[in-house]
Amino acid sequence: MDKKTSIPQKDYKQQLDDAESAAHFLDRIFNAVSDAIVVINPRDYTILTFNRAALKMLGLTEEELLGRRCHQIFYSYPVPCDNFYKTCPIKQVLSHQAQSIIEYEYISKNKQVSYFAVTASPIINKQGQAQYIALILRDISYKRKNELRTKELPPIDHISGLYKQTYFYKELLVEMSRSRRYQRPLCLILANLNYARLHDQLKTVDKNLLLNKLAHFINKNTRKIDLIYQYGEEGFAIILPETDQEQAVSLALRLKGYCQNVIGSINEFNKLLTYSILTLNMGIMEYNGLDDLQVMIKKTEQALLQAQNQADNIFAWEM
């Protein structure tokens, strides 16, 4: 059995001819596995055989893969990978006579990017040496691309738990463009806390707790399509797609009505609130489809200033 299934050191095509039954057996095994399997001669890096999953994952035909060198296929390098300071799993296997695992970015001939977890395992001969190397490629593109997207997410403010102000400008510009193009309503709310006499009495840790609680509350009581950001040290920006001014004012009133309950639920503030006033001022602006980003923000900031003089601490510009 060993003689029939062992792969010789001579021409691999002749081997497959001489061991037809073994080839059929391997073919059935290879094509039952969803991961790609590629067998390589470590002496010259030649690809000896592979399964159908390998052709599908690599986007190649049998003629394009069979007999080629692995560094030509995976990196388009004319010489082995380590000459270009790339980790070569085959050399790692030969050095340690043990399995090697790496993650690898593959660019197909159609310029499609995939990510593989590559496990290189030695095929040991009777002398206990790695005569051939089996590469098993598992497609981890979905997981890897999700990780990359996560890294690209906007930075989070460690106090409020909201996205930082720097990302707010980019998203507002996107929503303004969408509103203008599809003629859909869009509103912006800028809000900040007015501590009155309370401000100087609060410790930093107390103010951080208050901001965190309010930010969590605003997140919980807005829609999934609404975008909420830290704005300044003690303020929030709320982008409201598909929302006209009347709807934005209604939301602001609800937030104002609930925020006192949130503040009152924090025991540390109860005594201070007896002697002081804490309000949430909100300025509202509905996008008119004409203003640029700076004008939109400036008008909303002016509305926020006007809100301090309103009985309900809310001011909305009329379009």
Give the CATH superfamily of the largest domain: Reverse transcriptase/Diguanylate cyclase domain
Cα-atom radius of gyration:
32 Å
Number of strands: 10
**Fold-level CATH name of the largest domain:** Alpha-Beta Plaits
What's the helical proportion of residues?
40-55%
With strands numbered from the N-terminus, the spatial order across the biggest sheet is 2-1-5-4-3
Oligomeric state, counting identical vs distinct chains: single chain
User: Low-confidence runs (pLDDT<50, min 5 residues)?
Assistant: 267-276
Note the run of SSEs as H and E.
HHHEEHHHHEEEHHEHHEEHHEHE
Q: Provide the domain count.
A: 2
Write the CATH architecture name of the largest domain. 2-Layer Sandwich
Main beta sheet strand tally, sense and closure: 5 strands, antiparallel
CATH class of the largest domain: Alpha Beta
Helix-and-strand structural type: alpha+beta
What share of residues are in beta strands? 15-25%
What separation lies between the terminal Cα atoms? 86 Å
Q: How many DSSP H or I helices?
A: 14
Report the average pLDDT across residues: 79
Overall 3D form = elongated
